[in-house]
Amino acid sequence: MTDATPLPPTDPGRHLTSPTTRGALRVQQQLLTAAREFLRGRGFTELLPPIIGPVTDPGARGSKQVDIDFYGHRYKLMTSAILYKQASLLAFDKIFCIAPNVRLEPLETAGTSRHLAEFHQLDVEVAGASRDDVVQLAEDLVVHMVDSALRELPKEFAELGRDPQAFAELLKGSFGRMRHAEAVAELQGVGHPQSADAELDWAGEALLSTRRDRPFFVTDYPKGSRGFYDREHPDDPGLLRNFDLLAPEGYGELCSGSQRTNDYAEIITRMRETGENPQKYRWYLDLVREGVPASAGFGIGVERFTRYVAGLDAVWQASAFPKLPGVVSP
Amino acid sequence: MSDLSAPGFPEEEVRRRARAGAAAAFPPAEDYGHVLFGAGRPEPADHAALPDALDALRIVPPLFLPQRLAKLIDLGREPDYRDVELSTEIGGFTSALPVYASATGSTRAAGGDLGLALSRQAGALGIPMVIGENVVPVNGYGRLGEAADRTLLGRLRAYTEELPDGLGGVAVQQSTEDADAEVWNLVHSDPAALPLLESGRLAFELKVGQGAKPGLGGMTVLEAEAAAALGDRFGLDALFGDGRVLRTATPGTFTAEILRQQIRLMRNNYPRVRIWVKLYPGRDVAEAARVAHEAGADAVVVDGAEGGTGWAPGVFLPHVGLPLAECLRRLAAAPPPCLLVSGRIWEGARAVKSLALGARAVGLGRAALLAVAEDRESGLRRFAECLALELRLLISALGKYAPQALDREDVWSPEGF
């Protein structure tokens, strides 16, 4: 454990020179190096994702997008690269990117130890893949990244006070898998009031995470808890072919992903179900109408993943210039 | 005073109440001892362009009063109208009266200092207030230096500054065009809304269409310059021929599944916020109310096709949508637990009839705006005092002492209802 305080120091110099920050950023660099190595080895092409666009991912729970004035047009900073990931499959069948995201999260998330208003996502998308294909891919990728960091940076782990034994189970692979309905039942069984129609709440996620010794997948979230792009089960309406990857030890969600819907009419209908106005998605819908490949993919929160691997108290410790929701910072 | 008027609506009576307060519940006091009163006195129905089934109902007190006996035992003395307790749970909020201030949006009639004055007075009264659609895309939110009196933040602040502890709450509407401006996310992450959020007094209202023009979206008339500033976010139609244009919002597309999932998404994204759903008086209003309630809405609001603060084509008001009375009839079999209704509510009888027919509370739209227009400082407060007195008189006459105790037995019509 570290001597972390709940909030970053107001002096950026103090944060940057702290041994914890240095150690965490070295671990982060190694995790990304390993990810690139792994994905290139499997035939993925790395793209540089856009930062601005006329529209972005609306799927972020309760957070506000940032509007910018683009020569008189209202543009957005990306909350995730999802729309561009799907579109990029027109160029390459397997792509990844390390994408910056900005989400003005609700003020209450400043104290969750796991929310940043600005963060990065390791985004992966595979044409023709199923949800289960990319669940397996995410598991293999995570094992490779952690293994690489442990092998390359024993000194950093020692300085951070992170016991490599914490990953003994992870390195064996075979992460657990449970359906959202099972997660809800487990939480309700221990007296946590989790809604069956909603995302697992933060306390619920932490609770499940504390009860496990290796990362695990939660699959089949209900419609109404996710964005319009997650594909609905054709034979189990109301459930989505999606997943989250949760870390053990109470660290909670590391990654979200799904099989995507690429059917034009279904996307429009799902946009309405998520309260969206299809008009503003024109470029994306035009592309879908002409045809984008069926695909599946995921995004790993880079700072959250670093926090888990480095054993940090708060996600801001994994960022050189952290922006906490509502906190004015450099 | 303002230039606001409301043809077809008992504007003068509302304005008299805004001036005289509770005294306006009675004939002028100087008539006492000199005038004999009886049938033939103008009835509320005379003000309506069409016969109104709700106004035609009579409120029918019984002779035997078991609930009054219970109150008598409780108090140890004969109860009177002052013993009626009007505070009511409305959509997750506690309201001083079974009354809320209906949505007033970005229209000119509800804009400017009138909207602010209404917010202040509704806050002081401790009744919930709905902030209407399109305020943000048209007038701005208020954090970036827009004129405060038109913005959502201006109204939010005016309301909360006057709000007593433990009472009231704000419901912020979002329509399809508001979704582009992310109104809910904006409010949800705004420090100014935090006190409401933390005290459980913030609701988001999903707007399914317009009471005064069912099937259409919001409409306003704008000068060409103001319209140009809206870009392509709204439909613009230069049909007036004088430089002004009609600005239209889309009504949005709903199916049962779309409504259900939108409500679930709201509950997922804003777990600490109350969820209200506003329905226009469509012919399937009972089915829509059922879907909304089952998906988890804290309140279902039904706006009868009786009028509004916005701009509507002349052909709609007399011809389109179910009147409030028919909405209540269709909802009667299985009313949602928290049904809120609006539609030409301005005095106690129409309110009591609505409550008896299944509503939890009634909304004040035009009445609230006219009362505030009559007196920016205290018009709505005086108007509400008069309404509260009438509610107490009527409810106690029925031998009951809380609005929730009213039921269908309390009203009668020759045709049955």
UniProtKB/TrEMBL annotation, chain A:
Residues 25-330 form the Aminoacyl-transfer RNA synthetases class-II family profile domain. One of its GO terms (molecular function) is ATP binding. Keywords: Aminoacyl-tRNA synthetase, ATP-binding, Ligase, Nucleotide-binding, Protein biosynthesis. This is Asparaginyl-tRNA synthetase. GO terms for biological process: asparaginyl-tRNA aminoacylation. Residues 1-11 have a biased composition (Pro residues). It comes from Kitasatospora viridis. Residues 1-21 are annotated as: Disordered. Gene3D superfamilies: Bira Bifunctional Protein, Domain 2. It comes from the Bacteria.
Automatic annotation (TrEMBL), chain B:
Residues 258-372 form the Glutamate synthase domain. GO terms for biological process: glutamate biosynthetic process. Signal peptide: none annotated. It holds the Pfam family Glu_synthase. InterPro entries: Aldolase_TIM (IPR013785), Glu_synthdom (IPR002932). It comes from the Bacteria. GO terms for molecular function: glutamate synthase activity. Belongs to the glutamate synthase family. This is Glutamate synthase (NADPH) GltB2 subunit. It comes from Kitasatospora viridis.
